[in-house]
Design a protein that fits this description.
The chain has seven helices and ten strands. By secondary structure, it is an alpha/beta fold.
Length: about 230
């Protein structure tokens, strides 16, 4: 069994469309999605955004369950302009398996190998991203992988960390991060979002562009995951 984690359904929807014999399951009070790719059983968990909810859900997910591999996947934000929206990042500082033996079969995928940083909050400031990149040496940032890696290491579960770049310093969020997503509520506050764009109508085109970039990035990630799973 291979486990794949995403923070939110907005990240996983394109991948889930590839699953055969898909079904929903409940275990230890959490909901997962099961299916198959190339006759290999897959179980998908949405960890939520940030350390607290991720730890809670993942602990229940892997408790008393044996996985041959866990793939930590989803979106990440680039910390520099070397990575573009839609690029794939294989986090070398968190991954404990290598894809080098299958590099030829995956050579058509835009995968970059670099360090990934896990941060406590969404970062929408270009200057802050630049400073974080300078201090950490990381190429991109997310909010869950470090905690997933720690729990996998404690239980001896091999980990592959693969993220798709959804935003960059030059192509950042169309609105402040706290408007786009409420971490405490683990969802977007739609009335707050609508109020913001009604008062900033000049940003609506940026929202549409952002939505298109996210959709393309989600598809790229799904295709990459399917290709990797077929080669494992």
């Amino acid at each position: 069994m291979i486990a794949i984690t995403f923070a939110l359904p907005a990240e996983s929807s394109a991948f889930l469309s590839h699953l055969r014999n898909k079904s929903r399951a409940g275990r230890n009070g959490i909901q997962t999605i099961r299916g198959e790719i190339n006759h290999r059983p897959i179980e998908v968990l949405h960890t939520g955004v940030g350390e607290k909810v991720c730890r809670q859900r993942l602990e229940k997910f892997i408790d008393d369950q044996e996985f041959d591999l866990l793939i930590s996947s989803g979106f990440a934000g680039a910390l520099n302009d070397e990575l573009q929206v839609g690029d794939l990042l294989l986090a070398r500082n968190f991954s404990t398996i290598e894809l080098s033996a299958r590099q030829e079969a995956l050579s058509n995928l835009p995968i970059r190998v670099a360090d990934l940083l896990t941060a406590p909050a969404l970062i929408d400031s270009s200057d802050e991203r630049t400073e974080i990149a300078r201090k950490s040496g990381a190429a991109a940032v997310d909010m869950e992988t470090e905690f997933i890696a720690r729990m996998c290491a404690a239980r001896g579960i091999p980990l592959l960390s693969l993220r798709v770049i959804a935003d960059t310093p030059r192509q950042s969020f169309p609105a402040p991060a706290h408007i786009l997503f409420d971490i405490a509520k683990q969802r977007t506050d739609l009335p707050k979002l609508a109020t913001f764009f009604l008062s900033h109508p000049n940003r609506i085109p940026r929202l549409a562009q952002f939505s298109r970039r996210i959709a393309n990035a989600r598809k790229t990630l799904a295709n990459a995951l399917v290709a990797i799973l077929r080669e494992l």
